[in-house]
Amino acid sequence: MELLSVLPIPLAILHAGDLRIFAINAQMAALVDRPPADAVGLPISELLPAAHPLGDPRPYHESASQDQAVDRNLVLEGVVWRWFIRPLRGDDRIVQYLLVGLLDGGRGPSEGELGRLREVNAAKTEFLNLAAHELRTPLGVIHGYGSLLSQGGLTEEHQRLAGLRIYQKARQLSRLIMDLTLIGRIDELAPGLAREPVDLAGLAQETVADVQRRYPDLAIEIDARKPAAPAEGSPYWLRLAIRELLDNAVRFRPGPTGRVDVRLDGELGFCRLTVLDDGFGIDPAEHGRLWRRFSRIETDENHHLVGMGIGLYLVREVAEAHRGRVSVVSRPGVGSEFTFELPTP
């Protein structure tokens, strides 16, 4: 405590397991708006609003479980801070505590940062309005059929049909809720995104194996011409981008059978992931709309497929956050070829 109290930056020490505050200096206590004596013993997430970046438990758990330092930029009340977390090991070499601190960046957010924050805020508002509208339809169907089942008197065949419709709409709700979760974290895709060495080939193989289990009727093959594809970035977001590309390929097709090919190759300075499918395909005139937020290209063939129109938008955002790019080649009735490129370290 003597050391923490004399250092002129906000500092605290947390228990690695439940994130209770073990020690805190006056500067950090001022940020959590609680006297130091009152803050000790409470989890840091209880002292801050849910949306406060310091209250998010994930970076702390990441540092503790992986025994690795965490460094990020964040903006608090118009000031850019360098937020750091350092794991502290005990005598048994297990991480027992976390040292948390903030370094003043000495400047407010740039116009570019402010513009991005405004864009993210507008996107969330737009998404919530759209989600409220989209959630009504499956909820209405589930409510209606559930009411019929609760009243009894249905024939066995009608009970089966009601159960099937409830199951179908519940799957649609699951899809919408997943989209809600993703859009809630989209502001993480900023220039300060935490990066680490990753193997794009390994991520692709894991994701393909998972999709193969979920869609056994589809022929899903991966051709890893590069046995390893080193990159630098966020494993979570890169895995998500690959999953969204595969999900797009398996969903937008006329039936449960068909073929999806995943190819991984590259040249000097970058690696390339390509997903090819034999699905509905997309009119070339609509290709520009594919990457827009909440844009859904509806046709007679795909109008029944639910979604919020953020999958490919997120793929593009992930690529750009990693200094990469995306592209598409597609024709109706033939299929699509989506390409995701990243620079190599």
Note the main attributes of this structure.
345 residues, alpha+beta, Beta-Lactamase, Helix Hairpins, 5-stranded antiparallel beta sheet, 5-stranded mixed beta sheet
Helix and strand topology:
Blueprint (H helix, E strand, L loop, with lengths): L1 H5 L4 E5 L5 E4 L1 H6 L4 H4 L4 H4 L9 H10 L3 E7 L2 E11 L5 E10 L6 H41 L4 H29 L11 E4 H15 L3 E7 L5 E4 L1 H17 L6 E10 L2 E8 L33 H11 L3 E7 L3 E9 L2
Parallel strand pairs: 7-9
Antiparallel strand pairs: 1-2, 1-5, 3-4, 4-5, 6-8, 9-10, 10-12, 11-12
Helix pairs in contact: 6-7, 8-9, 9-10
Q: Largest sheet, order of strands side by side?
A: 2-1-5-4-3
Largest sheet: 5 strands, antiparallel
Radius of gyration: 24 Å
CATH architecture of the largest domain: 2-Layer Sandwich
Shape: globular
Strand content: 15-25%
CATH class of the largest domain: Alpha Beta
Structural features, described:
By secondary structure, the protein is of the alpha+beta class. The chain has 3 domains: 2-104, Beta-Lactamase (2-Layer Sandwich), CATH 3.30.450.20; 111-186, Orthogonal Bundle (Helix Hairpins); 194-343, Histidine kinase-like ATPase, C-terminal domain (Heat Shock Protein 90), CATH 3.30.565.10. Helices cover 41% and strands 25% of the residues. The chain has 10 helices and 12 strands. It has helices at 2-6, 26-31, 36-39, 44-47, 57-66, 111-151, 156-184, 200-214, 235-251, 311-321; strands spanning 11-15, 21-24, 70-76, 79-89, 95-104, 196-199, 218-224, 230-233, 258-267, 270-277, 325-331, 335-343. A 5-stranded antiparallel β-sheet has the order 2-1-5-4-3. The radius of gyration is 24 Å and the shape is globular. The mean pLDDT is 83.
